[in-house]
Amino acid sequence: VAAMVVVLSVSVAESATVEYQFDVATMNVTRLCGSKSIVVVNGQFPGPTVSAREGDLVVVRVVNKAQYNMSIHWHGVRQLRSGWADGPAYITQCPIQPGQSYVYKFTITGQRGTLWWHAHISWLRATVYGPIVILPKLGVPYPFAAPYKEVPLMFGEWWKADTEAVISQALQTGGGPNVSDAFTINGLPGPLYNCSAKDADTFKLKVKPGKTYMLRIINAALNDELFFSVAGHPLTIVDVDAVYIKPITVETLLITPGQTTNVLLTAKPSYPGATYYMMAAPYSTAASGTFDNTTVAGILEYEDPGSPSSAGFNKNLPVLRPTLPQINDTSFVSNYTAKLRSLATEEYPAGVPQEVDRRFFFTVGLGTHPCAVNGTCQGPTNDSRFAAAVNNVSFVLPTTALLQSHYTGMSSGVYSSNFPAVPQSPFNYTGTPPNNTNVSNGTRLVVLSYGDAVELVMQGTSILGAESHPFHLHGFNFFVVGQGFGNFDPAKDPAKYNLVDPVERNTVGVPAAGWVAIRFRADNPGVWFMHCHLEVHVSWGLKMAWVVQDGSLPNQKLLPPPSDLPKC
């Protein structure tokens, strides 16, 4: 036993360096009977899996051989002191220009589970994305029985049109962008779409009776929250956003763009004589026509011990379908999200800040900009363009990187530090909207001291319709301490907060016509983006950024920039 402990303690202390090269280039891909050129990494769609263990140093050299500016975000990776590697264009770096390269270096600290990487400029993440699989340190088991096999399951969105043209046209006209033509599972639209050849275009999960599989589910869709269910097979959720939770078993889960969910699926004990659809379809409360209301399916099929065919699979079996909630089933969504709780054990504690240093109240929602003089637009009215804002500020990306400006102390003319902590003009947020729906523009940031305990309430509004807004915070995990419908009541609602075992995430849905309260500790110096993860709303300005100042100790300071940091 002693020898085993020594071996384990040695292996646990060791951390490796894992290196990848990402060649970003275009290739032709055919889906739904149409071919088009898309931007991909290493000729793969979805892109390659980045695999590492907790504690490893990850080094990824990105070479841009495409015609677009590029940057890659490692979604959910804490990036402690390594903000230069976070990836959002014009926030932590200037983009990698065509023909240029950049090496992203970061250490995986205190995280294990599923995250993902994606392009973080314009709408290029439509096809530039892939999984990040973080295994526990060597010798450290999962806090649940180890599965027989692990399979990444990435939801995406497919347009027949060029997505860069789709968003460019929308920004020109001020209207909503054309919606996608299909959802995909691991890049494949599956059998439910017209002109989607059954076998080559369908993701199949082949299982053995009695075995347990871990699906590492990632929602990489641009604009849609998704319900997901597997016919005849309950799903046990063990991890969200690379944080273990108290296991819950569900028939259907909800996952917003940006989120990840690890589930255990146990195959039936004996050959069932059927195949099963795995299906995903959107959740939306938006006006009809503004989202892709289609359903994607993959197939779960069993190895048939009695089949004479070499593959051991029988194509002539009945196919069973799951039942998904209605598209606007908000009560399902709120019941589901309320069930998610941190593991909160000695080994995996929930370090919820119990006291708060800085409190913020942000309204998040849609709004308008006036049309150009004498122009006509395709916004909510002929003389307006769609916009989106946090506390009525529609964020304008600078032309240089915010992190560089902060680090060099040359922020003047790039950003101001006066982002409003509360709405400047309060109104009945979820009631009748105000007559004036125009929002202001600005590159305004919040400055936090190192170590501040922050509470942020995000309040959805009903301006131009009450919608759910999934928000992602870079550089931090946060605890979801409360949520509710209607207007947040600062006198009554905090009494209902869960400060014991709230779920810990990096992306959370602000409920339609409701609010969510999060807490986090500002223990990561740098400039950190926070934005809606629906790309259409990001394009309209539903984003902001936080500056976290250096702490007093050496290990509380932002590392200096790498020598190959791209220039604007």
Automatic annotation (TrEMBL):
Per UniProt, subcellular location reads as: Secreted, Extracellular space, Apoplast
Q: Does the keyword Flavoprotein apply?
A: no
Q: What Pfam families does the entry give?
A: Cu-oxidase, Cu-oxidase_2, Cu-oxidase_3
Its primary localisation, in coarse terms, equals secreted
The record's Gene Ontology cellular component field reads: apoplast
The reactions it catalyses are: 4 hydroquinone + O2 = 4 benzosemiquinone + 2 H2O
Keywords, in A-Z order: Apoplast, Copper, Lignin degradation, Metal-binding, Oxidoreductase, Repeat, Secreted, Signal
CDD domains to which the protein is assigned, alphabetical: CuRO_1_LCC_plant, CuRO_2_LCC_plant, CuRO_3_LCC_plant
The UniProt record lists the Plastocyanin-like domain at 24-137, 150-303, 424-551
The text of the family note is:
Belongs to the multicopper oxidase family.
NCBIfam families, alphabetically?
laccase
| Record protein name field | Laccase
Q: Which organism is it from?
A: Aegilops tauschii subsp. strangulata
